[in-house]
Amino acid sequence: MTTPTKLPRRGLIAAVLLIVIVSASVTSWRWWERRQAGDFTRDPHFCGLVDPETIHRLLPTSYGGREDVGSCTWAAPREKGVYRANLHLRASRLTVDLARDNYREQRSGDERGWEKDTQEDLPGLGEEAFLRFQPPTPGKNITAQVVFRRSNMLITIAYARSDDDRQAARAGAIDAARDAVAQLRP
User: Which of 48, 83, 157, 184 lies 20 to 30 A from 90 at CA?
Assistant: First the structure.
């Protein structure tokens, strides 16, 4: 008859210590993650962030929103010889620090395809917000984009018109962003 080998006392203490350290680390990480999570713990209904009246005013012939993972797009039907007007909302739920960093990255003006010299701060929209334009080029319509952050939620709203009216694109993007700020509920 064989007797089971006993773990040396040091090995048992080391195993218990390892379990305690791992448990403490996981608990600390979860506590930190909850503290950094921000106001929003789940994604909003993306197509519900912009009022139907605003959509109808900006895109009178829109056929409704199409929701994807993290976004919603409203578009007018294609017309021959006319650029397609649309409104695209993209939302990212992150930690507060990541949302701030992502906002600063976009605000830095290094993103390709956006004018650097026309960025405009938009006080009163979320905790921080700015507007920028995509330069009009042959074959593309004018697009104004509002980027705003509220706690751990980062939202971009791009409004593309079927004409080259820069002021109307600016006003439409800001109106849609105001709707989204008002509709966001933690």
Answer: 83
Phi-psi region of 161 (alpha: psi -120 to 50; beta: other; left: phi over 0): beta
Residue of 89, 113, 96, 72 lying closest to 149 (CA atoms): 96
CA dist., res. 145 & res. 177, Å (int): 9
- 52, 180 Cβ separation under 8 angstroms: no
Question: What proportion of the chain, given as a percentage, has pLDDT over 90?
Answer: 51
pLDDT digits (tens, 9 = 90+) for 132-172: 998 777 767 889 999 999 999 999 999 999 888 899 999 99
For the record, the structure tokens of 1 come out as 């008859």
* Total-model pTM: 0.77
Please tell me whether residue 154 adopts helix, strand or coil conformation: strand
Sign of CA dihedral 32, 36, 41, 42: negative
77-86: buried (b, 16+ CB within 10 Å) or exposed (e) per residue? eeeeeebebb
Distance CA 44, CA 25 (A): 31
Nearest alpha carbon to residue 70 among 54, 92, 55, 51: 92
81: left (phi over 0), alpha (psi -120 to 50) or beta: left
